[in-house]
Design a protein that fits this description.
By secondary structure, this protein is α/β, with parallel strands linked by helices. It folds into 2 domains: 154 residues, 3-Layer(aba) Sandwich (Rossmann fold); 86 residues, Sandwich (Jelly Rolls). Helices cover 28% and strands 29% of the residues. The strands form 2 sheets. It has a 10-stranded mixed beta sheet, sandwiched between helices. The structure holds adenosine-5'-triphosphate and ligand VIB. The ligand Cc1ncc(C[n+]2csc(CCO)c2C)c(N)n1 binds next to loops. The site of adenosine-5'-triphosphate has 22 residues, from helix 7 and helix 8. It comes from Gossypium anomalum. It catalyses: thiamine + ATP = thiamine diphosphate + AMP + H(+).
Length: 289
C-alpha cells in the first residue's frame, strides 16, 4: 500500500515538475540566510562597546586628499598601510590637521606600519623618512597588472600577522573622487575581494559591498551619515532586491546597470535592511559637520 502511494506520488510529481527558478526560490526560503550587520561607527569618536560584531580595523591610505576624519580612523585602526603614493599624502597632509604642532612630530606620530605598491609615485624623501622610522616597505614594481590598492588588500589578507582577521574591516581613505579609472579600479577591488569587509571613503561618501549570500542590517549613524544613499547592482543584474527603511524601498524589484538602479534614495529609519539575489554596492553620504 505504501509502495503504491509512493508510486502515485512520484507519478504526480512528474506532471508538476517545478521550474529551476521556483526551486531556487523555495530553497532560498528554506535556508535561513545569515544576517550581516553594518555600522559606520568608525566615524564616531568612540566606538560603542555593545557594537555587534566587534570589528578590528585596518586603515589603508591611497594617493588622494586625506578626508578630514583620517586622524580618527587612524586611532581606531590596529594596522595602517599606505598604497605607494598614499605615503606622500600622509607625509604632506597629516600635519595640516594639526597646524599648532610641529610637522615632523605629527609625521612621527602617524607612522604607517606598511607601505606597499609598485613604488612609482612615492617620493624618495618620504620613503626614506618612514623606512628610517621602521615602516615595512614592500616593493612590487614587477607587478603591473594589479593596482596598489589590490596589492595592499592582498597584504592585509595574507601577510598581516598578529591581526585578528576573523572580524576585520578595511577602511580605505582617498578612494573616491579624482581620477575615474582609479575610482573604478577601487570599486573593482571591493568586488574582487567580496568576502572581506572593505569600505571605500571620501570626505563626502562611503561605499561597501552587500554580498548576496547574506541578509543585511545597516545601522545608520545619523549624527555622521545620511540621508542620501544608493544601492547599485554593479556586476550582474538583480532579478529581485528588497529593502526596508528607505524613502523608495525596493519590493523584490529588478535592477540592473543600464536599467533601474537606486540612486538619490533617502534613509528614513535608523535601521535599513537589504536582501538581494546579487551583490549590491551600498553608498551613503557623509555629513560635513
Ligand atoms: N585620483 C584618485 N582617485 C581615486 N583613487 C586614487 C587616485 N589616485 C590614486 N588612487 C588610489 O591610490 C593608489 C595609489 O596611488 P598611486 O598614485 O601610487 O598609483 P599609481 O599606480 O602610481 O597610479 P598611476 O600609475 O595609474 O597614476 C591607487 O592604486 C589607487 O587605488
Ligand atoms: C588590461 C590592462 N589594462 C591596464 C593595465 C595597466 N595596469 C593595471 S594595474 C597597473 C599598476 C598600477 O600601479 C597597471 C600599470 C594592465 N596591466 N592590463
Amino acid at each position: 500500500m505504501l509502495r503504491l502511494q509512493s508510486i502515485i506520488l512520484a507519478k504526480a510529481k512528474q506532471f508538476t515538475v517545478p521550474s529551476p527558478s521556483s526551486l531556487r526560490l523555495v530553497k532560498k526560503r528554506m535556508i535561513a540566510m545569515d544576517l550581516m550587520h553594518h555600522s559606520s561607527c568608525f566615524l564616531l569618536p568612540t566606538i560603542p562597546l555593545q557594537r555587534r560584531p566587534s570589528l578590528t580595523y585596518a586603515l589603508l591610505v591611497l594617493n588622494q586628499n586625506l578626508p578630514r576624519f583620517t586622524p580618527l580612523l587612524w586611532n581606531h585602526a590596529q594596522l595602517r598601510l599606505c598604497a605607494d603614493g598614499g605615503a606622500n599624502r600622509l607625509y604632506d597632509e597629516m600635519p595640516l590637521f594639526f597646524p599648532q604642532e610641529d610637522a615632523s612630530d605629527v609625521r612621527r606620530r602617524y607612522k604607517p606600519d606598511v607601505i606597499k605598491g609598485d613604488m612609482d609615485s612615492i617620493r624618495r624623501d618620504v620613503l626614506e623618512f618612514y623606512a628610517s622610522l621602521g615602516t615595512e616597505t614592500v616593493d612590487k614594481a614587477h607587478d603591473q597588472d594589479t593596482t596598489d590598492l589590490h596589492k595592499c588588500v592582498t597584504y592585509i589578507r595574507d601577510s598581516a600577522s598578529g591581526l585578528d582577521k576573523s572580524n576585520l574591516c578595511v577602511l580605505v581613505v582617498g578612494a573616491l573622487g579624482g581620477r575615474f579609472d582609479h575610482e573604478m579600479g577601487n570599486l573593482n577591488v571591493i568586488c574582487r575581494f567580496s568576502s572581506m569587509r572593505i569600505v571605500l571613503l571620501s570626505n563626502d561618501s562611503l561605499i561597501h559591498l552587500l554580498p548576496r549570500t547574506y541578509c543585511h542590517e545597516i545601522h545608520i549613524q545619523t549624527s555622521v551619515e545620511g540621508p542620501h544613499c544608493g544601492l547599485i547592482p554593479i556586476g550582474t543584474p538583480s532579478k529581485g532586491s528588497t529593502t526596508t527603511g528607505l524613502q523608495w524601498d525596493l519590493n523584490n524589484t529588478a535592477m540592473e546597470f543600464g536599467g533601474l538602479v537606486s540612486t538619490s534614495n533617502i534613509v528614513k529609519e535608523e535601521k535599513v535592511t537589504v536582501q538581494s539575489d546579487c551583490d549590491l554596492l551600498w553608498t551613503i553620504s557623509i555629513k560635513n559637520l
